[in-house]
Amino acid sequence: MQAPVKDSLGSGCTLIDKTLNRESWNHTLFGPRPLCRYGPGPKMHEMIAPLSWLLGKWRSEGGKGIYPTIKDFTYGEEVEFFHVGQPNIQFTCCSWKSESKAPLHREAGFIRIKPDTNKVAMMIAQNTGICEIEEGEVTGQKMETTSQSVARMSFSKPPKTLKVSRTFKRDGDTLEQVLYMETENTPYTEHLRIKYTKV
Ligand code: HEM
Q: Are residues 162 and 129 both part of a single domain?
């Protein structure tokens, strides 16, 4: 019998936290406890110091989605960037419809920095069957990346995404993400814009 969840699981999503048991969630995503992020707080690897401004859990109810082929929409999102002492940052994010709170887009991935440079790479797996590698640069508290490859499951919903770019910018306790994309039907244009506050 699983104990009821009394506190946050830190899954990166409050909706998941409310419905999953801590042990099963930890084990499913991150393996046994000593190897996961709930172990004794690991020391941050110096390689990821230029991205330390991203670390933590961020949340917004004010995301704006647009695209020429769809109706404008608003969404909420939680994103968490964390590390386990390795030279990479892990992240999870989940979004939901503003009105119904129904789950929308979800992602998990890793960010690495090329040694002795400000070059960054993100590897992102999405619930929609898309997997991206984005590369770019971190400058101060701003990270700009563009897809180098976008792979997709053969039966992912069309249209095919051809290119994605993201900008993360921190200003005090606010983090902004802006995402542009190109599909096989639509030239490169804005899809998402959201400002999170630290949770
Ligand atoms: C918080 C993140 C995101 C949210 C909330 C979101 C939400 C949506 C919604 C509501 C639609 C319209 C409904 C539909 O056609 O299914 C849509 C369409 C789409 N999204 Fe996103 N999306 C997100 C991120 C992304 C990302 C990262 C990509 C690509 C890598 C992407 C690619 C697309 C595509 C290709 C379409 C279809 C556009 C078309 O029909 O021309 N989305 N998105």
A: yes
Whether residue 4 is preceded by a cis peptide bond, meaning omega within 30 degrees of 0, is no
The protein residue whose alpha carbon is closest to atom 2 in ligand 1 is: 105
**Nearest residue CA, atom 18 of ligand 1?**
70
Return the closest-CA partner of residue 148 out of 126, 163, 127.
163
Tokens of 25: 């969630």
Helix residue ranges, H only, the chain? 14-19, 22-30
What is the C-alpha to C-alpha distance for residues 165 and 151, in angstroms, rounded to an integer? Answer: 15
Per-residue tokens: 53: 């401004």
Q: Please count the structural domains in the chain.
A: 2
In this prediction the pTM is: 0.84
**Ligand 1 and 28: CB distance under 6 A:** no
Residues 168-199 pLDDT 10s? 999 999 999 999 999 999 999 999 999 999 99
Taking alpha carbons only, the member of 109, 65, 108, 117 closest to residue 88 is 109
Mark whether 162 and 71 lie in a shared domain: yes
At position 183, the amino acid (one-letter code) is T
Q: In terms of domains, do 51 and 11 share one?
A: no
33 CA from centroid of ligand 1 (Å): 34
User: Rounded to the nearest whole angstrom, what is the distance from the C-alpha of residue 40 to the centroid of ligand 1?
Assistant: 37
Q: Give me the half-sphere count of Cα atoms (radius 13 Å) on the Cβ side of residue 78.
A: 14
Domain holding 139: CATH number?
Answer: 2.40.128.20
